[in-house]
Amino acid sequence: MGNVLYSIFPNEPFVDLTLYQYGWEQCDPLHSYGPTMRNHYLFHYVISGTGILSTTDSSGVNHEHRVRSGDGFMIFPRQVCTYYADETHPWEYSWLEFDGLKVRKALELAGITISSPIYHSNAKDLGLKLRDTILHITQEREQSTFQLIGQLYLFLDYLTRSSSRRHSARTGKLQDFYVREALTFIEQNFQNDISVEDIAAFCNLNRSYFSKIFRDAVGQPPQEFLISYRMTKAAELLEITELSIGAISGAVGYPSQLHFSRAFKNAFGIPPKEWRNEHKIIKKEP
């Protein structure tokens, strides 16, 4: 194996955009990875050399893409793929694994899809800024979580503005209006005993149609998103307040502390008390 830098992003609750892991590697000739499948979006930027990405699209058709220096490739959640370095000119690349509410729209603007996963830049200055931003994330070892998330937003900005397949933003769709209304309703009422039916009723839509347009726009069913949003808020309260677990349970819409603790563990892998012990912000006396 060639030289590798690898980091895992701290388990922080960011809903709009979050980072999971990132790294850099100078690959050996014919070094391969896969077949593999990810739960999140994984982008590789090729700094030098070349390689092959082999993917399966949404129709089950296999494709091979040669990726060169200055290009990139996106692996989509639950997409089976394999990629390997060229024998003569093995690639050096950096990668970011990320997800969140902002990702689907950004990739739509960039024209990057599961059938067309290759990034080409048609704006040299922005392409170089994209490269430098990825390298900054992967090589600067002492960054705070907010610095990393800020850099990730810059990465998406450069990706959408420099992509050769860039699309204009589509505005004014009625479905987008309904989804924004639903997100606002969740933000303002997550602490109450609300259901998907309540959200759909607020938007004056039947549940079936509402669930479809919400999932198409957000990438999650509304019930799954509501739970995720509540767990994110709960993690914030555990981190920055002295509220009891029971009080936090009620503050995020769970009258039953037992049900809350189960949902929290499903979301973060550990019970809320353990999360607090690991992430509690200690307030220093002035």
As a whole number of angstroms, the C-alpha radius of gyration is: 21 Å
> What is the oligomeric state here?
single chain
**Biggest sheet details:** 6 strands, antiparallel
Give the second-level CATH assignment, the architecture of the largest domain.
Sandwich
Provide the descriptors you would attach to this structure in a database record.
single chain; about 290 residues; alpha+beta; Jelly Rolls; Arc Repressor Mutant, subunit A; 2 domains; six-stranded antiparallel beta sheet; four-stranded antiparallel beta sheet; 10 strands
List the helices and strands and how they pair.
Blueprint: E1 4-8, E2 18-26, E3 32-36, E4 41-48, E5 50-56, E6 62-68, E7 72-75, E8 81-85, E9 92-99, H1 103-110, E10 118-119, H2 124-139, H3 145-162, H4 174-189, H5 196-202, H6 207-218, H7 222-240, H8 245-251, H9 257-268, H10 272-279
Antiparallel strand pairs: 1-2, 2-9, 3-8, 4-7, 4-9, 5-6, 5-8, 7-10
Helix pairs in contact: 1-3, 2-3, 4-6, 7-10
Q: Could you provide a short overview of the structure?
A:
The chain has 286 residues and is of the alpha+beta class.
Describe this structure in words.
This protein folds into 2 domains: 4-162, Sandwich (Jelly Rolls); 174-279, Homeodomain-like (Arc Repressor Mutant, subunit A, Orthogonal Bundle), CATH 1.10.10.60. Strand 5 and strand 6 form a beta hairpin. It has helices at 103-110, 124-139, 145-162, 174-189, 196-202, 207-218, 222-240, 245-251, 257-268, 272-279; strands at 4-8, 18-26, 32-36, 41-48, 50-56, 62-68, 72-75, 81-85, 92-99, 118-119. It is built from 10 helices and 10 strands. Helix 2 packs antiparallel against helix 3 (145-162), helix 4 crosses helix 6 (207-218) and helix 7 packs across helix 10. Strands 1-2-9-4-7-10 form a 6-stranded antiparallel sheet, with helices on one face. Strands 3-8-5-6 form a 4-stranded antiparallel sheet, with no helix packed on it. The chain is globular and about 60 Å long. The model has no long low-confidence stretch (mean pLDDT 87). With 286 residues, the protein is of the alpha+beta class.
